[in-house]
């Protein structure tokens, strides 16, 4: 039976006070003085990055060589192994160029004196005045010369479409045409004169 208000005791005997729990590392375990005074410096290993194959360049060169079928392209890709170029400047263990700047360049500062004097408003007003003067001159020039902008109607008036030549071909049944069925005035007078006599 466990004691009242206490957990049940286990049957294992614990090691003595000289026992160290965990894993002891002979090389690095020197305590706080070694951690503060001697930093572990890791040297960078030369790592060669394997770049993917550049199929665009290989395809262009295969066409230049005269490959046309899929089998020829596959053979060319098999024997000509062209890799993409590594365009990354900074990698682990690489040196930084001396003239390289990180981040975006700052925006040029706004001249505060121009803001107080409403300089931007005056520049905008000058642009608007110059624009209205140019528009007025263009309208004057159009009014003096009397030129009207050309549209489809005026173009067709000056350049009429060619007249289609009329075809005089008729079917064979309309070639033999009898005399007109409605008699003329002279024929009707002759007809009535002959009937009256």
From TrEMBL:
The gene for this chain is Cfap77
Pfam families tied to this protein: CFAP77 (PF14825)
Q: Which InterPro entries match?
A: CFAP77
State the protein's name.
CFA77 protein
